[in-house]
Design a protein that fits this description.
201 residues; alpha+beta; four-stranded antiparallel β-sheet; 6 helices
């Protein structure tokens, strides 16, 4: 009798742990998600910049991405501002397709400490290349040169990353997944079915 009671209690504990792991793992505890227009550029930034966390739900707003220039081969120079990290970032993406983005690691970005260092504009809203100080334009030209701007694409020298397309935060676990998880913890079908009826009735 005690042995059977111990087995039942053990199974219940396993179910509680399993359900907790599944629910917390699927119900929005993900590290980041992005709902903006440029998931490929977001992926470049979060994989290039040390400390870039992307979007952290409930902590701060999404990063701001502004395209500044595109070369003849489709490379993109863009501005990335993330309130969760210091600095204003300029990055270059080499190429992207439906699933992947390509960029040169380690030298595809410049970080500026303040807006004033870059431009005399009061805000970065609507900023364009012509708004930057001449010395910043020189640094951007050097960045472009390091990233083969207007040269033929050579993706073999680039890093390839899957585009972070998790544009919707994950929702709660659905009933089928929960039932499947609960089913794993039970030895035989009858016991599992009786517990299922008890839990979902």
């Amino acid at each position: 009798m005690t042995n059977r009671k111990f087995k039942v209690n053990g199974k219940i504990i396993i179910i509680i742990i399993l359900v907790s792991v599944i629910v917390f793992g699927i119900s929005g505890c993900r590290n980041r998600y992005y709902t903006g227009d440029y998931p490929e550029l977001y992926t470049v930034a979060t994989n290039s910049l040390l400390g870039a966390r992307g979007v952290v739900p409930y902590l701060h707003s999404e990063p701001r991405i502004t395209i500044l220039d595109v070369d003849s081969q489709g490379r993109t120079l863009f501005l990335y501002v993330d309130v969760g990290m210091p600095g204003i970032n300029l990055l270059i993406s080499q190429h992207s397709d439906e699933h992947y983005v390509y960029f040169h690691p380690h030298y595809n970005f410049i970080i500026f400490e303040t807006r004033e260092e870059m431009t005399s504009r009061i805000t970065l809203d609507g900023v364009q290349m012509r708004h930057f100080h001449p010395e910043i334009i020189e640094k951007i030209d050097e960045l472009k040169e390091r990233n083969d701007w207007n040269q033929e694409l050579n993706l073999e020298s680039s890093i390839k990353k899957e585009i972070d397309s998790s544009s919707v935060p994950p929702g709660p676990i659905n009933r089928d997944e929960l039932e499947e998880a609960l089913g794993i913890a039970w030895n035989n079908g009858e016991e599992r079915e009786s517990r299922r009826e008890h839990l979902f009735s």
